[in-house]
Each structure stands twice: as C-alpha cells, then as structure tokens.
Amino acid sequence: MTPTAMRLFHRDSNRHFIVAGSEVYADRNRARRITRDDRMNGSLDGVTRDELLAAAAYFTTAYELPVEGTPNVDRSIRSAGLLNALEREQLTRDPAGVPAVRTALERHLDFFDAESFDGRITLGENWRGWRRLGYSYLRSLIGTLGAAIIFGRLRDRLAIDIARIAEKRPEKSSGLYDSNGQVNEALLAEYLTAFREHASGGVITQDEALAILDRKASLGTVSKRQFTSLFGLCTLLNRNEKVITERQFAALFDGSLLYLAASIPDNHGRRRASGA
C-alpha cells in the first residue's frame, strides 16, 4: 500500500502537523496527539494550510522515502515521517487519534517496514532490510532469523509487531530507550561525554564504543550482537575502518544510521532498492 499521509514539523512555530491527502491536521493543544477533530482549514500560529500541503507535495515528489528530519527547500518545515497503514486508519476512525511524533525506537524499526508500511515486519521485509544495508546473503539470513526469533510472534509467522516491540525487548539493554520508546536524553548525554573523553581525531574504535555502552548499561548478549551489527554499518560508512564518529554514535539510536548506510552505493555504484 502506498503511503498517503505524513507527519510534518514546522520549525518556527514548533508545531506538529499531519497531511493526509488533501486534509491537514494540527496538534492544536500541543498534547503530542492529533485526532480527526484537529482538522485545519485556515492557519495556526502563522502556519498556513497551503504551505503544509505544498511541503507534503514537495516531499512526495522529491523523495522516494521522506524520512524523519528531511527538510523542505527553505528548511522551514521538515518531514517527521510517514504514517503506516494502522496509523492512517486510527486517524480517521479512532477518536484518540495518533501520536504527533513516532518514537525513536519506532523510527528505527520503520526502516524494515518501508515496503508495506503496515506496522509489521514480515520475514521477507526483515531479510530485504538487511540486504539493503549491504549485508551478505548469509549475514542477512542470520540477522533475519535472530530478530524474528527474539522479537517476532509465532502466531504472526514470526513477524515483528512494531507497536508492541517493548513487550519483547530484552531485560538487559543499552537503556537508551525508555518505557515509551523515546531516547533517554540524559543517558545519551553521558554516553556522548564518555565518547569525547576517548575520542582521537573525532573518532573512537568500535571496541571502545561497545565498552562505553557495556560499562554504563551492562549489555546482555542480544544487545551486544545488535550493536555489533550496527557497527558494521559504520565500517561501511568509514571506508572499511572499524571506527565510529560521534554523529554515527548518536545515530545508532534514532534510526538515521540505517537510512544513511542504505544510501551508500555498493562496489558497482548502486544499492538495489529491492535488497535482491
């Protein structure tokens, strides 16, 4: 199903919106939720309906996937990500509406749901996500099976339900995501402080990065393997050097590292979107 709705963030007004087809909705009360009753016809805090529609049209035309943080031409509006099929239905039918912002953990997992945008990561989507990241057939198979066994559900044929991922997360983790799936900013700041203390030339080795995470959070086996996989993307981005920059370290948690790595061409100058 082709996504037809997206979240937008207006920089100057610090407000969140949703554009769904020709309709515009606003987080009027700054409750960080948007409902069908929040339909916007005129303007709000100087933001007009027409400029939001124009921004959405620009993102749809200019980008295959306007991920969170993508700016419009004058940088006044940025994409806050697409609504999946479940959210689009909730916006029109559920009086409670949808969150104005996807959590960091959800944005991270959305990378693997980019084909169907239905809120579930099937085995096939899981596999092709790993392939888009540049991993080999074998490594992609291992990553797919590992994620499906740990986070998937047997009754769903090992598909991963993004909305219920918190129920399946391991007890020992980095602690970067709180119970609501948002980044723990205080803990991230501690990680970044430790990063800077060990950095040389703006980078640290991947072993040092894992040690920083483990020292502060006592990572379990699952979390260590997840970070090792993500560090492999940093190797790709850093021309096969096993180091990590501060920006890449922070991007481990907001999902942007996945999209960045998937955009890097392979040895033939391209990355197959299908993951084949």
Task: Jot down its keywords.
276 residues; 12 strands; globular; disordered C terminus
- Poorly predicted sequence stretches spanning 5 or more consecutive residues: 267-276
Describe the sheet with the most strands: 4 strands, antiparallel
Strand order of the largest sheet: 3-2-1-7
Derived from helix and strand composition plus strand pairing, the structural class reads alpha+beta
**Count of strand segments:** 12
Helical percentage: 40-55%
The CA-CA distance between the termini, in Å, is 20 Å
Instruction: Write down the domain tally.
Output: 2
What is the overall number of helices? 10
Give me the secondary-structure topology.
Blueprint: E1 5-10, E2 15-20, E3 23-26, E4 33-34, E5 43-44, E6 47-48, H1 49-62, E7 77-82, H2 85-93, E8 98-99, H3 104-110, E9 120-121, H4 123-132, H5 137-151, E10 160-161, H6 185-198, E11 203-205, H7 206-217, H8 221-237, E12 243-245, H9 246-254, H10 256-262
Antiparallel strand pairs: 1-2, 1-7, 2-3, 4-8, 5-6, 9-10, 11-12
In brief:
With 276 residues, the chain is of the alpha+beta class.
Outline the structure in words:
The structure is a single chain. This protein has 276 residues and is of the alpha+beta class. The protein is built from 10 helices and 12 strands. The protein has helices at residues 49-62, 85-93, 104-110, 123-132, 137-151, 185-198, 206-217, 221-237, 246-254, 256-262, and strands spanning 5-10, 15-20, 23-26, 33-34, 43-44, 47-48, 77-82, 98-99, 120-121, 160-161, 203-205, 243-245. A hairpin with a 4-residue loop joins strand 1 (5-10) and strand 2 (15-20). Helix 6 packs across helix 7 (206-217) and helix 8 (221-237) packs across helix 10. It is globular and about 55 Å long. 40% of the residues are buried.
